[in-house]
């Protein structure tokens, strides 16, 4: 059992006390003149999470919004490089990302995360870390056949050939969001159109203000 697996089962020691920082979340949000939220992109591999999240972040940047994108593979190069793809490691992967996203929101930023995050319970856990209304599930809804056809990283091909086990959509389940705050059906749309739809929804949900 690795150190983190052992720790997972331990509760926080009573000697560890939460300290409030001198600058509050509200102060930081006000200074940034924005509503900090998590935009939690979820969808099959190759559905377009990373591509659309990048395009959304670019639009946010152009609007003067301060954000940070946590992207699947990049996180596995660093923070989560000790994790593999067992069920337990996948849960831990998403748990850490949820915690990091929470810190970004606390710092007054818009956190975008682009991970398959196939299980409802893991997404629910990430949601529970921030305040009500601060977690927006963005379901990038692309049919499996389309993802498999795109196969940008050749992963479906490998999974079909039995070279990757537990691949989401092939031999591991993807639990689609039941009522995501934002639902993007990508088929027949260009990346920029999908990104614009996300922005429109953020405006409708009063997360973003349209300034004249
Ligand atoms: P994911 O992050 O979900 O694994 P990626 O963003 O890495 O997916 O890959 C999606 C691929 O599909 C990219 O090569 C992208 O250019 C392509 N693509 C084609 N049409 C779209 C669309 N409407 N939205 C997003 N991606 C699209």
UniProtKB/TrEMBL annotation:
Annotated protein name in UniProt: Adenylyl-sulfate kinase
Function: Catalyzes the synthesis of activated sulfate.
Family indicated by similarity: Belongs to the APS kinase family.
The organism's taxonomic lineage, starting at the top: Bacteria, Pseudomonadati, Pseudomonadota, Gammaproteobacteria, Vibrionales
Domain APS kinase: 36-185
Top-level EC class as recorded in UniProt: transferase
Enzyme Commission number(s) from the entry: 2.7.1.25
Encoding gene, per UniProt annotation: cysC_2
Keyword annotations of the record: ATP-binding, Kinase, Nucleotide-binding, Phosphoprotein, Transferase
Organism whose genome encodes this protein: Vibrio marisflavi CECT 7928
Pathway: Sulfur metabolism; hydrogen sulfide biosynthesis; sulfite from sulfate: step 2/3
Database matches in InterPro entries: APS, APS_kinase_dom, P-loop_NTPase
Active site location: 117
Residues annotated for ATP binding in this entry: 43-50
Catalytic activity: adenosine 5'-phosphosulfate + ATP = 3'-phosphoadenylyl sulfate + ADP + H(+)
Molecular functions (GO terms): adenylylsulfate kinase activity
């Amino acid at each position: 059992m690795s150190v983190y697996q052992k720790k997972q089962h331990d509760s926080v020691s009573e000697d560890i006390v939460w300290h409030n920082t001198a600058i509050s979340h509200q102060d930081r949000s006000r200074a940034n003149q924005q509503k900090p939220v998590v935009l939690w992109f979820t969808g099959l591999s190759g559905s377009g999470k990373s591509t659309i999240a990048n395009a959304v972040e670019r639009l946010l940047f152009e609007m003067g919004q301060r954000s940070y994108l946590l992207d699947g593979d990049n996180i596995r190069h660093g923070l989560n490089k000790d994790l593999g793809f067992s069920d337990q490691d996948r849960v831990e992967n998403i748990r850490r990302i949820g915690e990091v996203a929470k810190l970004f929101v606390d710092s007054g930023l818009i956190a975008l995360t682009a991970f398959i995050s196939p299980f409802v319970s893991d997404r629910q856990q990430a949601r529970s870390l921030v305040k009500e209304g601060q977690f927006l599930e963005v379901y990038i809804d692309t049919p499996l056949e389309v993802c498999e056809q795109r196969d940008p990283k050749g992963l479906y091909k490998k999974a079909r050939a039995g070279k990757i086990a537990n691949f989401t959509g092939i031999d591991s389940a993807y639990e689609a969001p039941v009522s995501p705050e934002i639902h993007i059906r990508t088929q027949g749309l260009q990346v920029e159109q999908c990104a614009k739809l996300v922005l429109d929804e953020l405006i409708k949900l009063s997360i973003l203000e349209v300034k004249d």
